[in-house]
Structures
1.
Amino acid sequence: MTPVRILHIDCSPRPESHSRALSAAIVARLRDAHGATHVTHRDLGLHPIAHPGAAYATALSSPANMTSPESVEACGMSEALIQEVEAADMLVIGTPMNNFTVPSVLKAWIDQILRMGRSMGVTATGEKAGLLADKPVYVGIASGGVFTGDHAKQPDFLTPYLKAAFACVGLTSLQFLPLQATAFLDDQQLDDHRNALIAAMDINRPITTSRR
Ligand SMILES: Cc1cc2nc3c(=O)[nH]c(=O)nc-3n(C[C@H](O)[C@H](O)[C@H](O)COP(=O)(O)O)c2cc1C
């Protein structure tokens, strides 16, 4: 049986972190559900990738610039990261909420993944159109406070942003698992909260990559 391939991305700078524990629990749940799995771990928190530099920004600045030899070289990291996404059957992301949205290390990764002419195109009427095959994306979020539900006390630019960004490349099957109020819950409460999120996970989404 071909193992299910999981791209597991962590974004916290802290080795012992709530979003890491949550994403690890999501991966463990998927392993239980799917049997044989192969996990590629990209640790953006402990090993951040660079923010877009001048060469990459120039490559993306116009259709004409995109095809030059310099641009092909400048897009090397983008190409490798997109291929990592393409090779996976599902993505698991563990991320903190930083100032109402994703941490900059995850934004830097997104800046490499959303690339016109490679992972996204444009429709006749000018909208972005995803070029990647859809696949399940599980996003475990740790937040110090509460950002969703009746007791939300702050805006949420994280989940709408990720939905819009991933949709641009064709990834629309997102599932958010918010571990909220980490600043206020004790260890037992956090364990219970995490376990409840994992128990409620929808693991029956079809795997739709072209590999299968
Ligand atoms: C720079 C920074 C910004 C933060 N901004 C928010 C925020 O906007 N909302 C919130 O609820 N918590 C915020 N927090 C708290 C973290 O989301 C919280 O501590 C979370 O558990 C961190 O994830 P981790 O345990 O995986 O590192 C922020 C923390 C940092 C360091």
2.
Amino acid sequence: MATRKLRVNRSAITHKVRYAVRNPERIVPYVKRTARDSWLRVKYPNHVDYYRAVMASDAARSPEAAVGSRSHERWLALGRMQFDYLREHGLAPHHRMLEIGCGNLRAGWRFIELLEPGHYYGMDISPDILIAAKKTVAERGLQDKLPYLTVTHDLTFDFLPDNHFDVVHAHSVFSHSPITVIDECLAHVGRVLAPGGFFDFTFDRTEGPEHHVLREDFYYRTETLVRLAARHGLEATFMADWEKRPHGQSKIRVTVPKS
Ligand SMILES: C[S@@+](CC[C@H](N)C(=O)[O-])C[C@H]1O[C@@H](n2cnc3c(N)ncnc32)[C@H](O)[C@@H]1O
């Protein structure tokens, strides 16, 4: 990613004005989104409740757009990118996988198709997007793979067994999460990882000040997330090979160090 982009503070008024001048057609949608989000933040002070309401509103219009894809082609391409990456990194049919923030299975349906029955576990805070996820399972004819799809309010994984998942995956989830949510996830994910397993997550990277836009998009410095993982006894590695893909976010891999 260009260094100039990595230093942009999207919450700064100067950035907003410059962006509006360059993209006048985006002003009205942005004002509408700001009004909706401001109202939802008053109604739901807790972040997860707020973001669930954002997803309900977005998914009612289009589940594919709600997970960030402007067209069906992009939805397919973004799912394929995640799938190909994990396949190149060794994902195999016998693995057990947990997808955090699985959305409407943009990548999930490909994982379900590959993995043995019952080996895919998807969780999301949004019941609306999980209804769309079940539709994706039906449309792809994946009923026999018996994927688990469950709604969650937190990332403690307290209902899941120890040492179970070879791969835990969260794509474009921490880019929508305050640090408290990421902290909770990192505090607990080590327990559910199988020996030798890993947890990959993407994040919106900044090399300038950390910031957020409408409490929908959060920008973090790599070292903040690496330090947070270390505080929970985890090793975090910046995945440089992911940077070669045409995707705006960066990726970190977390593992439990061998004792
Ligand atoms: C941009 S979408 C990406 C969905 C999917 N990972 C993909 O790549 O298609 C983000 C998803 O994460 C979910 N999400 C946001 N915060 C979450 C959290 N704290 N725990 C679980 N899911 C969350 C949202 O409801 C949404 O479905």
